[in-house]
Each structure stands twice: as C-alpha cells, then as structure tokens.
# Entry
Amino acid sequence: MQKFKALGISNEIIRALNEMGFEEPTPIQLEGIPVLLEGKDLIGQAQTGTGKTAAFGIPLIEKVKKHPGMVQGIVLTPTRELAIQVAEELNRIGQFTEIHALPIYGGQDIQRQIKALKRHPQIIVATPGRLMDHMRRGTIKLQDTQMVVLDEADEMLNMGFIEDIEQILSTTSDERQTLLFSATMPRPIQNLAQRFLHDPALIKIKAKEITIPLVEQHYMEINDRQKFDVLCRLLDIQSPELSIVFGRTKRRVDEVSEALKKRGYSAEGIHGDLTQSKRDAVLRQFREGIVDILVATDVAARGLDVSGVTHVYNFDLPQDPESYVHRIGRTGRAGQPGLALTFVISRELEHLHSIEQTTKRKILRMPVPTMADAVEGQQRLTVEKLLNQVEEGNYDHYKGRAEELLTEMDSVSLLAAALKMLTKESHSTPVKITEELPVRVRTYGGNRRPSNAKKVVPKITPRNNSWKY
DNA sequence: AAAAAAC
# Structure
C-alpha cells in the first residue's frame, strides 16, 4: 500500500483499495497513474486482468472529485456486460468519495436510465450506441467532460463503433484528457489516436506478459458428437469452482446450456439474443456462484473479470487467435491458476496449430478421459458434496445417496462420517469433520480401472498448481 | 461466417 501512496493517491481511495484487497500496484498502474494524474493523454496496450481498470479508474476519480455536478468522465466499452463491470469497479474505488459511476447501455429501460441520470453521476460508463441515443435526447451532455477512456478500442473498432466514437469525442471539449486502451494497434486505431490524442504517453505490456502465464493450456481431439458427454465427464472429474464453456453460435450455447441443466448441472447460457435483463441476471448469478457453469458466446470472451473461474472450456474452437486469447484470459486472473481446455475436431488441428503459433504458447494435447476416470470423479464429487452437507447439517436430502454410498466406500473415515450423518436427527448439531478426507472410493461392481490403464488428465489443484487426478 | 451493438 505504501507504493500506492507514493503514487500520490488520496486517502479515501487508498482506503478503498485496501478494502478491495489491493496490495501492490501492477506495472500498468505503476507507470500509468502518475502520468494520468499529471494530465497527460495515454495509449495503453494491455488487457483487463493487468489492473487496467484501476490504472485509469484511480486517476479518473481523483480528477473528477474536485468538480461535482455534470458528467465529467466517460468510459466507452464494447459490450454491455463490460460497462456494468467497469462501473462497479469504479464505484468500489470511489466508495469513500462522493463520486458515482453509472453504467449506460442498450437493452435496458431508457426511462430508468434517465431517472438515474437525474442524480448527476460524475462518471458514465457506456456502450457507444446508447450513449449517442442519450446525447440526441439531450439527457446526457458532454460539454463538461474532462476525461474520456476508450476501453478495448480494437474491439470497438471490430464492432463498427469507430464513427460513433469519433462523434462522441468531437462533442467533448478539446481540453479533455483522452485515454485509449487496446490489446492490438491496427491502423484505424492508430489514426484515431493521432486525431484525438495529444502527445500521448505510451505504455505497452509486452506480448510475453500479455499471454497469461498461470493458465495451463490444453486441447483434446474429439469428434463433434462426443463433445457434450466429454464435457460432462470433465466437469465431474475436474470439478471447477466456476467455469465458462464457450460455444460458436448463440444456438449452440442454448443447446449446451439446456442439456447441462437437464443433466443436473448448475449452468446458464448467455448470448446477445437474450433480453438484457436476463443477461444481467445470469452474470450476477454466476458472479455470486449461484450458477457455476456459464455457457457463452464470445459476448463473454473479452474483459469479463469474475473471480473463481478455474476452468475455461472451448466447446468449439474459436474463430481466430485473438478470440482464443481473450477467452482463456477469463481464467488465471489475479494471480490464480487456471486451466483452458479446447475441443478440437480432427480437421481443425491445423487451425489450432496456427493459434499456437500466433500466441507463441504450446497447447498440450490431453487424452479424452476414460469412463473409469469419470466414474471415479463423479463419486469423489458426490462424497465431497455429501460431506459438505454433513458439515452443514442438511442430511435429509442426501439420505438415499448416502445409504448407497455406504456400500461402496472403503474408507473408514468416510464411512464413519456417513454413518453419523444417517443416525443424526436433522435438527441436531452438525457434525464437524476435521480430519483429512480421503477421496478415493471403490468403483461400481469391481469395475476398477486396470492398473496399466493410462491415467493422464490433469486436475487443477489451485493450492500448488500441480496436475494430477 | 459468427458474434457484438440503439430504438
């Protein structure tokens, strides 16, 4: 925290950073914050997860607070979800100040937004289309805007927002401070920078640092018909805390999420054809862990920062290397390890290879897990779930399964735990299990995996980042 | 070719 203080950040914000668990500034914060506090324009080549939002958010809030009233800061993002996420982070950074950030995006009731705007948030985080809508209606005026942040500028370019962005920038004062963040710097983005930024500082997080070092990357060669069953197997075996399954189309996302739900997984789909309120709700549930598998199109590929995402499954190979990098970047965040696993059908192997070359990272082949692997994984999960229930004192629901398991378990402590569970009244004191719990259980009908069988699929263990079943 | 984004 001393290092944050040394950057010249005010006490209220330091206090908020403390509460948010920030310890040391990331490279982009260390370099960017002083430059921005000085008032310079900035081009930042970095992704989220590098602490980018705080890098512009801290100076933004510092600057804004001295001039209460009108809209003084604008952040533009390519997707609606990102607008919500960035606004939330800004509000956390500014929680001990009088500064408020409001997300403004399409698909949400505009009257509701107009009402919220009457409370005069100093910062607006918006997708371009809806912001333009408000500008035309006169419900947002940008004359007093002192800082404009273009977040994920290359993606906004891809989505055809460049003209909107130019128009928005032209509406604001030339005195404004302009920040442009982009993972890549294609020609049109360079032109934009040249036209609208004045003598910008350049901060580049090198390519090596852009690819996420803590994400283990694997692929599995598989045919299309097997994909769903194998996904279920993997979910059982690897038991992710939270996971994202990326599909190629909206339709595909619907199919996979429905099928997962039918099999009893806690999954929800998200894509651009859903109503915005549904999208907001799904993402909220996912963040809270109410839903633990998010099935998504590339709408969720960029910038989304959800803590606890231990696994990303590319159910379908992404179209381009850029999309691949963004998708797998949803895990391995904030220094936590993550696993990215990509399903590849044989004719796509070459495409996978080109992704490998572009990202300059080896994607390791992983064999399809056997049925025995799956059975064992499933049982381990069931036992773990059961034991959690025992700890929490909710026995009734698991009674039947527990009785079944009693005949299968070869571990004395598991047996004892389950016995306790079955003999306790449902309202009695929960059993506290403190001993190390063995997780191996005997498989059905003596159908053990032969000792010479391959046993290879790594399971992610966040504690030590080692790979084993 | 698909996805995203304003009504």
User: Anything to note?
Assistant: The longest helix of chain A spans residues 371-392. The first strand of chain A starts at residue 42 and ends at 45. The CA atoms of residues 78 and 156 of chain A lie 5 Å apart.
